[in-house]
Specification:
- Chains A, B: Belongs to the acyl-CoA oxidase family.
- The structure is a homodimer of 669-residue chains.
- With 669 residues, chain A is α+β, with helices and mostly antiparallel strands.
- In chain A, 55% of the residues lie in helices and 8% in strands.
- The first copy, chain A, has helices at 9-17, 22-30, 33-47, 63-86, 95-99, 103-107, 115-128, 131-142, 289-320, 339-374, 381-409, 421-430, 438-457, 467-473, 484-511, 516-522, 524-550, 556-576, 578-584, 589-606, 610-615, 621-624, 635-644, 656-665; strands spanning 148-151, 167-171, 176-180, 188-189, 200-209, 212-222, 235-239, 252-256, 259-262, 272-273, 279-280.
- In chain A, strands 1, 2, 3, 5, 6 and 9 form a six-stranded mixed sheet that branches. In chain A, strands 4-8-7 form a three-stranded antiparallel sheet, with no helix packed on it. In chain A, strands 10-11 form a two-stranded antiparallel ribbon.
- The termini of chain A are far apart.
Chain lengths: 669, 669
């Protein structure tokens, strides 16, 4: 933290009037003072290496130079991690400690070309390889003798995995698989690090043996010569071009022209192909759900991090920025004093806590279910899967909306890349598509909810997180109560009513002769809405319950603020979803008017703590990397300092004056 | 248009099944076959010059190279315009015909450094200069002897113009003004072309003479030497850095250290400073509203163009892309067959028409009011101002939402810059901030509505577009009717009720002792919502009325589709705003369920015409510039062709392999 005497006076005044202990909240967020201390130590250790420092800010570079800088940084980072692993007493057993959370993204701000090596290549080897295969590959991969990635999505095929076209055909004569891309749409497209970085790759391909297709299986394929890095014969590899964001990730394409690999390069922990070409089936594939769900839970955590950054930037800027003169002869107020600005920012701050606690709750559930799975009990797997799908969709969409709202709340300056908000938006918005496109995700949850409703309606028992469906099916509607608990019950009633209405509509359409799939499709706009309603009810109740469990340990001042934020979040969403509440609960116009004043008074109560609340996220300047959001609030100085780094500003007259502008003005062009 | 035989078969099938004549709709959009022909001729003439063709796609360039390319293109474009102006029979009297609409943006896809010369510098000289000043400056500017821009916004001051800090102090001794930037926050910040392009600038500054401040006035200031382009002494000028978009516009900063300009460089059409320093006041400043309103009407047209491009890309892509297998043993359907996809796209198509017709309606009103103004009648000025504010805010926000939804509807490929959707988003989203930040705009309209309500309540007459307030104030509530007309009346009732509720809340707060400004601020979240509701009612009714006036001339097949699109737009918004309708009208649950099926059946009816509807926008491939959206639907081929243009793909191994990757893998980094 910067010494107090250089801090912008408005920001300092905000900190002085904060009603709670900011450090106490930081400890609570980190999960205890010891975690905070460890985090800070880790940050010190990594940042003192200076890898994050850029001579010319990377946004000024060409696409190619951006890649070259990303490779340099990623290599230096991994070198450092390897060194820290070797130093016994650092306590950094693996890369996750360094790269997890916000620290990694502070160094490689627009994605890393080596991420998939650790996040997909090594985990897939571990999860899908036999013991022998693991012994052979994992050591090499951990030691960075080879660099791998994971290729599944194709140019013409994404979410629908069965539609992939790449083939791996077994040739018993040579005991090899032949990898082939039969069409242009079969080209792998998107994998990070694939373009010019990785020399190995796990390729998901349709397995053919003895003339039969057995579906998608994983194969380890060498792409480039280990010494020269030249693509091997038959391997067509390159990069896919510039994207909205993540331009450091080196996303690539990959096509095969009859490329041969040894039989034992198929990862055979589950299914096998014997030497003679006999296919031996996998025992169970349900277990692979685990990884997908793990990734989605991690994604909710990522969304928290981005939202925390965005609200930190926008809130601090709103305390520094002054505008207009609503009262004559008074100075221009801080824009944070405008209630419309509080409306834009404060729900974002409470969303960070809502998502963090919901992710934690989901994480605990994930661990319980995983333990049950290992004991052979799969009962809660569909429930968990349905939860992870809708939470993925709703939290990524909300996070994108939140980051963009924060950006717009900073006016023109939010449009500057130096605010860091546009880059954040690029990263968050990508998450709406990857790891399961959001509309598809919501429809998967809807499928579960429809089944659960049919069970509840038939009087069968249903899992805990859809228990409210049973209550609704039994027509036990609680009377309306204008409290947080009452609103949560209201949201559950909304979700149950929407699911029930969808089921009715589908059944009606089937009865009029429509095929189930067509009835489903025609009802899908409503199904998505039901699925979102379910997720809203889950988010509200888990945020409320987890906070209730947390506050007894907090000081009274902090407790009050934590409870105000839950209230704000719940009331905000009630006001957003009034149409649903009016349709499906007994809320009255008077209740609504009360909710509106409650909301406005919560904004007023939380206003003095706005800066304290974002300070408590404790995101240091090097990680935040924003001209508008730094701790000291030197917004205008930093904007100018950053502008002066532009290569265009290194010379008073650009060459284009002589070449084009002057000839144009002189009529000689 | 490409010859039919190379068109993707799915797209061709879509065109074959279109139920209306696509060309007829194109003519209707252009305002007659002759306009269509002229537009096409203009496009041919400009595009055959080849200025839009890029050797290396500009997205791969560095920030500096992007500027240099933009200057080159802009100069060549203006050279061409000058030549066409000299050729008598081209019919191109001015640059607007070439640069207006979509054509200019096809050549300078991420903004032009010369735009403000024509859009602000010359118009301000014309509007604010005396006849002598016009004679001196406008010729030089039109002839491009000098290149100018317009500097108003400062680092610390945007929407609130009275807060600007730059000073122009008159010195009667030398008969000069002294321009000065007293603080860092006084630096001009944002003007396009200011950084390294313009050599002249109109600077808005606080005028001081005889020790008194007279507020903001315009001054023509030379910034750079006409021959060497070097900044003049005391002029601190440069560029502000990389932004989310518009990186071809060369936005700059500008500070003055006591820079002297002749007295007659103040534009004195309205106010004057005499030689002795006497200030002579302007007769009326109401007339300057005109320009602002003109710009906002143009902005609504721009939004139409961007939305038309975005829905063209996403709809054609959705016809080409196949995914999943809802029914076993059937092929993967086009994603356009998913009702959730239709839900994302079709309302976007109808919004283009809604915005276009509303802009036209506003344009007619603007012309009427301007004529009245010239006759000294200012009565309808506040109404028009209120309309232009809320339409600016709502159409820019809706357009940004529409473009982003289209981008997300294209899945991962929408994230590629080659889709053109991310660049479009950058441009559209900027419009939410410039020309009046959207929240500020909505509050300005709210101020008008509150006054109008008070008038209506008191029984005074109110202008036409708020006539519905008088109806509501007289408690003449029409019974609910589930028709388009009924829904529009419902939206008016919602707007009136919201305005009335705001007035009540503010008055209640004042009665409890709050100052008016504080009561206003505390109610501002509701005020914004009332203002939006007013705008929705306007958009729905103007779209409906303008279409009604248009369809009698259309063929029956086209008429049907045009009416379906109005229905879709109105029903879509009714379903979006159910909470409001339930609160403030007598709509029933049964009405809502009917609306939902109506909406679903409209999607089904419009589905076969989706491609025909976007084809009718007639945006040629060079202007659309999208791998996903071209007329022939060769989506995957174009994605690959574009990727292969990446400079990274020009060599099989990037130099970073030798410098970093190999040493890392060998443990030698």
């Amino acid at each position: 933290m910067a010494p107090t005497n250089t801090v912008n006076v408005d920001l300092q005044r905000e900190r002085d009037k904060c009603t709670f202990n900011i450090t106490e909240l930081t400890h609570l967020i980190d999960g205890g003072p010891q975690n905070t201390e460890e985090r800070k130590k880790r940050e010190d250790m990594v940042l003192k290496e200076g890898i994050h420092v850029e001579d010319v800010p990377s946004e000024y570079l060409s696409h190619k130079e951006k890649y070259e800088l990303a490779i340099k940084k990623a290599c230096l980072l991994f070198k450092m991690i390897r060194r820290l692993q070797e130093e016994e007493n650092t306590g950094m057993e693996n890369y996750r400690a360094v790269l997890g959370g916000m620290l990694g993204s502070a160094i490689l701000r627009d994605g890393s070309p080596l991420t998939l090596h650790y996040v997909m290549f090594i985990p897939t080897l571990m999860g899908q390889g036999t013991v022998e295969q693991q012994a052979y590959w994992i050591g090499r991969a951990f030691n960075l003798d080879i660099i791998g990635t994971y290729a599944q999505t194709e140019l013409g095929h994404g979410t629908f995995i069965r539609g992939l076209e790449t083939t791996a055909t077994y040739d018993p004569a040579t005991k090899e698989f032949v990898l082939h891309s039969p069409t242009l749409t079969a080209y792998k497209w998107w994998p990070g690090g694939l373009a010019h970085t990785a020399n190995y790759c796990i390729v998901m391909a349709q397995l053919y043996t003895k003339g039969q297709c057995h579906g998608i299986h994983p194969f380890v394929v060498q792409l480039r010569d280990e010494n020269t890095h030249m693509p091997l014969p038959g391997v067509k590899v390159g990069e896919i071009g510039v994207k909205l964001g993540m331009n450091g990730t080196n996303n690539g394409f990959l096509g095969f022209d009859h490329v041969r690999i040894p039989r034992d390069h198929m990862l055979m922990k589950n299914s096998k192909v014997l030497e003679d070409g006999t296919y031996v089936n996998a025992p169970s594939s349900k277990l692979t759900y685990g990884t997908m769900m793990f990734v989605r839970v991690m994604l909710v955590h990522d969304m928290c991090n981005y939202m925390a950054k965005a609200v930190t930037v926008a809130t601090r800027y709103s305390a520094v920025r002054h505008q207009s003169q609503p009262k004559p002869n008074e100075p221009e107020p801080q824009i944070l004093d405008y209630v419309t600005q509080q409306h834009k920012l404060l729900v974002g701050i409470s969303s960070v806590h809502a998502f963090r606690l919901s992710a934690q709750w989901l994480w605990n559930m994930y661990n319980n279910v995983t333990a049950e799975l290992e004991a052979g009990d799969m009962e809660r797997l569909p429930e968990l899967h349905a939860l992870s799908c809708c939470l993925k969709a709703v939290t990524t969409a909300d996070a994108a909306e939140c980051v963009e709202r924060c950006r717009l709340a900073c006016g023109g300056h939010g449009y500057m890349l130096s605010s860091s908000l546009p880059t954040m938006y690029g990263l968050v918005s990508a998450a709406c598509t990857y790891e399961g496109e959001n509309t598809v995700m919501l429809l998967q949850t809807a499928r579960y909810l429809v089944k659960a409703w049919q069970q509840a309606r038939a009087g069968s028992s249903v899992p805990p997180t859809v228990q409210y469906l049973a209550r609704a099916a039994a027509r036990r509607h609680p009377p309306w109560e204008n409290t947080v608990e009452g609103l949560i019950l209201g949201f559950q009633q909304v979700a149950a009513s929407k699911v029930s209405q969808c089921v009715q509509t589908i059944e009606k359409r089937q009865n009029s002769g429509m095929a189930y799939e067509d009835a489903w499709n025609l009802t899908s706009v409503q199904l998505i809405s039901a699925s979102e309603a379910h997720c809203r009810a889950i988010l509200l109740s888990s945020y409320y319950e987890e906070t209730k469990a947390l506050v007894p340990a907090a000081s009274p001042a902090l407790r009050k603020v934590l409870e105000q934020m839950v209230d704000l979040y719940v009331v905000y969403w009630a006001l957003q979803k009034l149409g649903d509440l009016l349709r499906f609960t007994s809320i009255s116009e008077r209740d609504i008017e009360q909710l509106q004043s409650w909301y406005e008074s919560l904004l007023t109560s939380l206003r003095p703590n706005a800066v304290g609340l974002v300070d408590a996220f404790d995101i240091r300047d090097e990680i935040l990397h924003s001209t508008l959001g730094s701790y000291d609030g030197r917004v205008y100085e930093r904007l100018m300092e950053e502008a002066l780094k532009s290569p265009l500003n290194q010379e008073p007259v650009n060459q284009s004056f002589q070449n084009y502008l002057k000839p144009l003005m002189q009529g000689k062009l």
